[in-house]
Amino acid sequence: MFSEFLVNKFIKDNTNIKNDAVRNSYGILGGIIGICVNAILFLIKLSVGFFASSIAIIADAFNNLSDAASSLITILGFKLASKPADKEHPFGHGRIEYLSALIVAFMVMLVGLQFIKSSITRITNPETVKFELIPFILLLISIGLKVWLSIFNKFMGNKINSSALKAASVDALGDVFTSSTVAVSFFLSKFTSLPIDGFIGLGVAVFIVYSGFSLVKDTLNPLLGEAPDPELVKAIQNMVLSYENITGVHDLIIHNYGPGKCMASIHAEIPASIDIMKIHEIIDKAEREISESLKIYLVIHMDPICIIEGEVKKAYDEILKLINEYDHIESIHDFRVIGEGDIKNLIFDVVLNNSIKINLTDDEIKENISSRIKSIHPNYNCIITLDKHFL
Description:
The protein has helices spanning about 1-10, 20-50, 55-80, 95-125, 135-160, 165-190, 195-225, 230-240, 275-295, 310-325, 360-375, and strands at about 250-255, 260-270, 295-305, 330-340, 345-350, 380-385. It is α/β, with parallel strands linked by helices and about 400 residues long. The protein folds into three domains: about 1-225, Cation efflux protein transmembrane domain (Alpha-lytic protease prodomain-like), CATH 1.20.1510.10; about 225-305, Cation efflux protein, cytoplasmic domain (Alpha-Beta Plaits), CATH 3.30.70.1350; about 305-390, Alpha-Beta Plaits, CATH 3.30.70.1350. Helix 3 runs antiparallel to helix 6 (about 165-190) and helix 6 packs antiparallel against helix 7. The chain starts with a helix and ends with a strand.
């Protein structure tokens, strides 16, 4: 496979994809190949477009030129994103990769808008498109090159789990479709005098704008703070629970500071009776080993739990049964009973299910739960904290 040959030829230690330097090399190689292929395609299609007087082919040529510029910005993005953390940016520069993709997206949209205008002009003022066999064969060759580039970018993107390279693969596959449409319109121009070239050019231009808009959307999501990868969430939870004396987890929050650069915090439930130095050693070990294994920075907060028997266990079971009646409540945690005598405070956190929308304020939700509990245990006062689900 030619893609593997290029990787083995130009990337040292290419199997060590967890290494930042190796990952950076993959991104740079992908960018360089993208520049070379798209530059060749631009020259081929521009020459054919001018020779045949085809606005659709010229539009497709400049689409490839914008792809070459995209690859250049991708290289710069990988280089800048790999800069180490400093005083002004303690979490590193990983999000620059997203910003570079955002610049590329706006460039793509600008090219598309320009060719919408040019294509409309061609429809209203049509010109004859000259069909020749050699230029048509060159177009078919350019389509083959784009097919290979899509496969190459997908291979590289999957190898290092890079959203930028995966997006480049999808973009190249879209170009295969547009270029094929352009080739068909060029061939049909041999048989008709209708301004089909202008209409196909308009379709290509609209597709370019749509592709740019999709890239903007995909790039803004991680910048705004999208939900974390479910597989990463499951891996963190399962690994934390695998350690001795950790009986439950909650309040997992994951922050994304660029591809492969995540910081996570989680609350681990531990028995209240355990020796503090022993559990501290276990928590330290879990933080260190999980961080190294998943290539993240993990912080674990200890929550002592004392729900074993007696009044506390009975109160917990009753409230858990009541809470399960609410569809918009996912779980409870940090349950405690505080006070002496008949009057006691029940203190616990409630996790809301974000997928279920209800017309109640936070205070109304807490008041509703408190009233239900008060009807069962008049001597219990509820102190409830509402937790948001960040997953």
